[in-house]
Each structure stands twice: as C-alpha cells, then as structure tokens.
Design a protein that fits this description.
Immunoglobulin-like; five-stranded mixed beta sheet; 17 strands; mainly beta
C-alpha cells in the first residue's frame, strides 16, 4: 500500500469538495482525509485475496447510526469484491442492510473490511467506500481503494506510473507519459464516482478544457484492459 503522490494537493483542495462531517477514517492507525486514496499491490493468482481494514471514528458529540455503501468506479472484468459491516455481504450488495451505532468520540476498529479477489485477472480496480449517517446521508466520509493486481506481488510493478498523465495538476490538455500504438480510452470520474468524461486518446493527447476545476479520478484502458489509474487535479490559470 502507498498513498497517492498527489496526497498533499488533495489535502490543499479538499475544502472545495467537502462539507463538515461527523466521521474520520483510519488505515493502519493513520488518519485519512475525506476521499483519500489507498493503493494495494497484490498477486493476480486465482487464490489471492486483499483485505482492507478501516477504523471509523465518530468525531461528533452525538451517537451515529452508520451504514456503508460501495461504488465500483472501475472494475477489472472477472474480478470480485465484497465488504463486511455488521455482517458480510455478497458481491452484488452495494449498500449495507445493517447499520452500526458508533458512540460520540469513539472509533470502530473491528467491523469494516473490504475484500478484493483478482481471480487471475491483471489490472487495476477502483472502489469507493462511503460511510454515512442513516439519518443524514450527506454526513459521510469516503475512501478510494486502488486494487492493483500484477503478475508478482511487488510495488515496483507500478501500472499507474507506466500510464500516468502530465502535467498534473493541469488545465487545457494532458498527455500520456507512455506511448502506445493500440486503441486507448480515458474515463474520468468526479470524487463521488460519477463519470464525467470518456474519450479515445489520439496522439497521446487529451483535451480536458471542458471540465471544471477540481479533483478527479481517471482510468486508462488499452484494448479493453485497465492499464493505469490515479487522481487528476484540474486547475485553471485564471
């Protein structure tokens, strides 16, 4: 696991995307900011499974009844993912049917984990997990997990770096660092997992001038296979 290289920029611009909320997430004891990213590198074997454990803190002064939903932003075909919260759900469940009460100023460190099964399929799947107050769904906190299945379990095999974009932050046009000859498609999502742009990539160049300033998530597909994904910060020169 490693944090996004744009973590500092994400922190600086998070105030644009966030409202006050009652929750804070932790991974391996470290606090996360809302819409933070976590990277998991794993062997693509049929028998491999990646577990993502999170702590959820209620930082408000009142008890909160909390549910979880997952948003499959980009999924490698043939892979499978599930999560547990109060109970363990099948891969077809996107919102937990049960809620867990988290008392004011306490942290639940035991009840949530996400599971990812590559099942022999290479590539990067992107899944957002959102924890929300059932009485006020806008009171929420999210994390984006990048599950990167490689032939060997190593962080040196960095698909995101091979197919990353520059400049980043950017405005107007962006470019692929890695040249290619086969058909490639870029898909861009806002931080809430909603697709806002999709296009063929021609001459390694992508025109993003129609998108508003803000933080986005992108995925690069070459011949139908996910080759890279990361955050993209769009910032005009105005």
């Amino acid at each position: 696991m490693k944090k996004s290289l744009l973590g500092i920029l994400l922190f600086l611009f998070s105030f644009i995307l966030l409202s006050q909320n009652s929750f804070r997430l932790y991974h391996q004891g470290m606090p996360l900011i809302n819409h933070d990213s976590l990277y998991f590198y794993l062997d693509s074997s049929q028998y491999t499974v990646e577990y993502m454990l999170l702590g959820i803190e209620n930082i408000s002064n009142t008890d909160k009844n909390v549910k979880v939903k997952k948003n499959e932003i980009l999924i490698v075909p043939g892979s499978e993912n599930t999560f547990c919260w109060g109970m363990c759900y099948t891969s077809s469940v996107y919102i937990s049917t049960k809620y867990i009460t988290i008392q004011a100023h306490t942290t639940n460190n035991t009840d949530f984990y996400g599971e990812y099964y590559p099942k022999g399929n290479l590539g990067t799947s992107i899944i957002m997990y959102t924890f929300f107050d059932i009485n006020n769904p806008d009171d929420s906190v999210s994390v984006v997990a990048f599950y990167i299945a490689t032939p060997v379990n190593t962080e040196n095999f960095d698909l995101c770096n091979n197919y990353s974009l520059y400049p980043n932050p950017s405005s107007g046009k962006i470019y692929l660092k890695k040249s290619f000859t086969n058909e490639a498609i870029i898909t861009i999502y806002n931080p809430y997992g909603i697709k806002v742009y999709e296009s063929l990539i021609e001459n390694n160049e992508i025109d993003i001038s129609m998108l508003s300033d803000g933080l986005y998530i992108y995925g690069i597909l070459v011949d139908g296979e996910i080759k890279g994904s990361d955050y993209l910060l769009i910032r005009s020169n105005k």
